[in-house]
Design goal:
The chain is mostly helical. The protein has one domain. It contains six helices and no strands. The protein has helices at 11-14, 18-44, 54-80, 84-88, 91-117, 121-147. It is elongated and about 55 Å long. The model has no long low-confidence stretch (mean pLDDT 91).
Amino acid sequence: MIQPYDVSTNPMNTVEWLFAAMECVHIGSFALSVGTIAMVDMSLLGAGVKGRSSAQILRATEPWTVVGLVIVITAGLAIFSSDPLRYYYSSTFRLKMWLLLAGIVFNYTLHRKVAMSGPSPVISKITGAVSLILWISVIFSGLFFAFTAGGY
């Protein structure tokens, strides 16, 4: 018989500072990954670093984006382990996960292709705007979960 998960034995719940530290890592690494993606988005929108193409910015920031995403997901899994049922049953959390998945898929498919190919200004602006909207939506759904009693 499968035993229910006992959250009271999880270090995230028993070590006083661990949950807060993991939240800091989670937020900091998310800021790193979204910040580097936003640099490319701003370039696609025509408001980025002058004298550098979106392809150049993408190549320069891509390793930092990957590092940020790996850390944010790892920290997020640790945070999730603190009370998996609360997260699982939260519609706000599930929305955040779907938006995160959409953002990652969009970033490594269409967004990357557009940034590397330098298409028309209209396509570039649409791609940059969609990317920003996706990542801002991930941020806000995470905030809504955190500040609305778990989004129940």
